[in-house]
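Q: Could you predict the 3D structure of S24 family peptidase?
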Amino acid sequence: MTDQSLVASAPHKPETDGVIMIRVWTTSAPSSGLPFRRDWLTTTFVNFESLIAVTISGDAMAPRLANGCVTLVDRSQASVQGDGIYILLAGNEAVPRRLSLNPLTGHVSITADNRLYQSQPDCDPRSLSILGRVVWVGQCL
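A: Sure. Here are the predicted structure tokens for S24 family peptidase:
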């Protein structure tokens, strides 16, 4: 379950010249969104309308997700449907973590790629507030 007050609720902006503006998750004023080519979105993602852009803050998922990189998050995957990187909501923060599902217990392990952060094994997935699953990453080198 997510706190809807934290998520940009406006729909994607109308397409202009083959470009679609993907809304940005924010706890502050709404942004105009990030532009992506329609043909790329439709060939890469089954349902691009469930995507939201989230900028990563911090080094917990470094080196895979660097501070400041932009991710596309599939909000239709707001429950653990398999191992992957998800965005968890902790208060007003979007927290990226790797979730691994234990098929025997149905519980998940929550880990950060950066070993300086503590893992949380054997968590009940119903206790998590998940924004969605990370399906794309863009960053400067």
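Q: Anything worth pointing out?
A: The radius of gyration is 15 Å.
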